[in-house]
């Protein structure tokens, strides 16, 4: 403590050591770090007037002193262009344990207990979850990163300390009085004390995931490692994506066979209709229902595995909800003071959202009809030259671009509407966003195909009769679906990974050009190699991860293309399978290399996306039956002499039988998997036994390493 006090007194006297003249301390690689970015005024190291510290030094140094006084490990370094100062904050293992026990009491942090088989061999990821207690440390299963707490848990502990969530954690009190709803780190950002703050990637864990996940095509995803590094919410998305991709193999193979039969039929009869079309449509409907029911069981299995059954009961209020002027505080005799939204404002906001969403849907319908008319006129002009397929392809491309443009605009409006509604928890906010998004996407993504299948032959559009050639719209629908699906799949995949990388490369190139110009202005050679960036500087250039919402959004829309118009383009499933095999790797690469490390969040399920998938599966029964009954001629292979009335009755009977099958299957598979439930109960029983036997265990005194009175690592040597 003597040296630290002496340093503070010397700084008050004006003696300040520039950042790049301070030794860069090295700490164990198992420690996770959180990085605060401060503005640096020019080249601090060139400052000769040490008695007149810069403004940035005056702002930064009190923060750094508070962090060190809170027994945190702090490292400072300058960016290579001397315009930013990075302050890396870590917590020693001793500090982590003390705070983790406080978090455990509040249900914020749990660890797995060790589990052994009958031969005494340790079984990874088989123990029950329990809140952390220091004196039970030998009973806990260490993380795969070589430390007791995973890097994600260490980051949670760090944020808990820095945000002062509990007085017992003895945080640094970065802000004396944050605004309501703001935590100290957010307040520093709002007050522009720091430029930004972000969570550092863990080098060895990230490299391991890159090798086991990004570049591996033959092995299963390392789901437990993903959960340990990113949290349950992101891991659950990849569980769902892996399950969806695996299930796609069946319709993909059947779709390829179906396409071969359609080509053979076209070569023989001039039409792609054949007896297999109705059967394939029924098969896709059954597959969609089985897919949904199967996922419910998989999801419940992981809820038992990760102990997230009661997660949503533990959620806190959103900061934006706390700060919103339409949030009211009421006092209850049973629950005490609680915050609730203003009922009148919520009603107004929901009505506004409904009006805006309906307006967007109307705009989409108008745009689709307009593009269809443009395609019809263009095809008429190209037909004398034998280029009608070119006109149809251009029209299909315009439909795809229209869908993407409307999506982009709507995403901005969607966030504004959901913010206006003032939802209390993150789950409520996300569910409201998904609901409005689906109402729009159901029309925007699929109305172009719906128009060709069921409108074009039966209604005049803008006073023009645009019926299909020979009143047969299946070829037209095939071309529209293929153009929209393939173009969207290609562009979205390219933009999703390419844009973050492109922005990062442009930022780096811009900075390097400025560095070379600065060297040239000083008369120094500027054509030599540039000093490489430090890891914290590289990650500072990356964009923040947007969350899994756009990832689910993309995949759920794709699921609709696979199921809603199955017979029109049977290769959709095969193309979706190929896309998803790439998607898993590109999403993994984006998380690990192209974006900053996201906050590790928990989740019990995929939320409202489950409801959306169920709705799409039900709609697929309706659209495929209508497609077979009214757009395709496939039923005539089985009932060649049927009348129009009989055609309607056959379609309705088929649709009702499939809906009945869905209802029965949902009822049969609604119960939790017996094996998962039995394993969960067994783990809980063993946990209770172990904790009862070890409740008088003497706490362990020696930690792997801790800090001395001056804030430096001390190993007890």
Q: What would your notes on this structure say?
A:
Helices cover 58% and strands 6% of the residues. The strands form 4 sheets. Strands 2-3-1-6 form a 4-stranded antiparallel sheet, with helices on both faces. The model is unreliable at 1-16, 44-50 and 701-706 (pLDDT under 50). The chain is α+β, with helices and mostly antiparallel strands and 717 residues long. The chain folds into 2 domains: 2-200, no CATH class; 223-312 and 334-515 and 541-672, no CATH class. The radius of gyration is 30 Å and the shape is globular. The two termini are 19 Å apart. The longest helix is centred in the C-terminal third of the chain and has 48 residues, at 474-521. The relative contact order is 0.12. Helix 18 (549-564) packs antiparallel against helix 19.
Task: Give a short overview.
With 717 residues, the protein is α+β, with helices and mostly antiparallel strands.
Radius of gyration: 30 Å
Helical content (DSSP H or I, runs of 4+):
55-70%
Strand order, sheet with most strands? 2-3-1-6
* Strand coverage percent: 5-15%
């Amino acid at each position: 403590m003597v040296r630290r006090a002496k340093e503070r007194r010397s700084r008050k006297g004006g003696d300040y050591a520039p950042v790049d003249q301070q030794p860069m301390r090295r700490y164990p690689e198992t420690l996770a770090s959180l990085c605060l970015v401060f503005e640096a005024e020019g080249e601090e190291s060139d400052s000769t007037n040490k008695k007149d510290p810069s403004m940035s030094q005056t702002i930064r140094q009190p923060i750094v002193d508070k962090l060190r006084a809170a027994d945190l490990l702090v490292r400072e370094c300058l960016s290579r262009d001397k315009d930013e100062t990075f302050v890396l904050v870590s917590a020693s293992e001793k500090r982590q344990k003390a705070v983790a026990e406080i978090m455990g009491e509040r249900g914020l942090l749990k660890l797995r207990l060790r589990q052994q088989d009958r031969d005494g061999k340790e079984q990874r990821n088989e123990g029950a979850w329990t809140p952390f207690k220091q004196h039970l440390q030998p009973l806990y299963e260490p993380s795969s990163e070589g430390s007791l707490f995973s890097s994600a848990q260490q980051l949670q502990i760090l944020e808990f300390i820095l945000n002062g969530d509990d007085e017992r954690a003895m945080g640094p009190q970065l802000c004396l009085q944050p605004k309501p709803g703001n935590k100290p780190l957010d307040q520093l950002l709002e007050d522009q004390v720091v430029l930004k703050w972000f969570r550092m990637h863990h080098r060895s864990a990230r490299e391991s995931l890159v090798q086991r996940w990004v570049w591996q095509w033959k092995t299963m995803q390392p789901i437990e490692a993903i959960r340990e590094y990113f949290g349950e919410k992101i891991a659950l998305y990849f569980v769902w994506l892996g399950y969806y991709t695996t299930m796609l193999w069946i319709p993909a193979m059947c779709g390829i066979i179906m396409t071969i039969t359609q080509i053979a039929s076209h070569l023989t009869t001039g039409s792609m209709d054949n007896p297999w079309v109705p059967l394939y449509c029924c098969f896709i409907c059954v597959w969609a229902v089985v897919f949904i029911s199967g996922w419910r069981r998989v999801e419940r299995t992981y809820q038992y595995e990760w102990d997230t059954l009661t997660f949503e009961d533990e959620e806190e209020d959103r900061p934006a909800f706390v700060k919103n002027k339409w949030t009211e505080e009421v006092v209850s005799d049973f629950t005490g003071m609680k915050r609730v939204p203003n009922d009148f404002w919520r009603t107004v906001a929901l009505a506004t959202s409904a009006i805006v969403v309906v307006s967007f849907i109307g705009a989409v319908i108008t745009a689709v009809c307009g593009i269809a008319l443009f395609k019809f006129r263009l095809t008429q002009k190209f037909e004398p030259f034998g280029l009608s397929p070119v006109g149809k392809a251009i029209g299909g491309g315009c439909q795809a671009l229209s869908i993407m443009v409307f999506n982009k605009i709507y995403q901005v409006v969607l966030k504004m509407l959901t913010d206006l509604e003032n939802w209390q928890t993150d789950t409520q906010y996300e569910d409201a966003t998904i609901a409005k998004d689906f109402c729009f996407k159901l029309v925007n993504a699929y109305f172009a195909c719906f128009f060709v299948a069921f409108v074009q032959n039966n209604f005049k559009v803008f006073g023009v009769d645009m019926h299909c050639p020979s009143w047969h719209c299946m070829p037209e629908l095939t071309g529209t679906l293929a153009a929209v699906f393939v173009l969207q799949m290609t562009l979205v995949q390219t933009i999703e990974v390419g844009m973050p990388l492109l922005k990062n490369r442009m930022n780096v190139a811009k900075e390097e050009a400025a560095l070379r110009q600065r060297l040239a202005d000083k008369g120094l050679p500027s054509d030599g190699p540039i000093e490489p960036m430090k890891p914290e500087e590289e990650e500072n250039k990356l964009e923040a991860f947007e969350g899994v919402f756009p990832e689910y959004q993309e995949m759920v829309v794709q699921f609709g293309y696979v199921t809603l118009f199955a017979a029109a383009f049977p290769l959709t499933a095969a193309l979706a399978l190929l896309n998803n095999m790439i998607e898993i790797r590109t999403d993994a690469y984006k998380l690990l290399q192209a974006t900053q490390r996201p906050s590790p969040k928990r989740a019990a399920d995929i939320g409202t996306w489950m409801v959306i998938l169920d709705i799409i599966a039900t709609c697929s029964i309706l659209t495929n039956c209508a497609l077979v009954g009214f757009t395709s001629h496939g039923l005539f292979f089985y009932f060649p002499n049927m009348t129009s009335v009989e055609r309607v009755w056959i379609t309705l009977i088929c649709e009702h039988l499939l809906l009945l099958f869905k209802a029965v299957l949902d009822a049969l598979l609604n119960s939790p998997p017996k094996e998962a439930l039995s394993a969960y109960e067994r783990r809980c029983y063993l946990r209770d036994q172990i904790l009862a036997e070890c409740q008088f265990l003497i706490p362990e005194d020696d930690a792997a390493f801790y800090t001395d009175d001056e804030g430096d690592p001390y190993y007890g040597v």
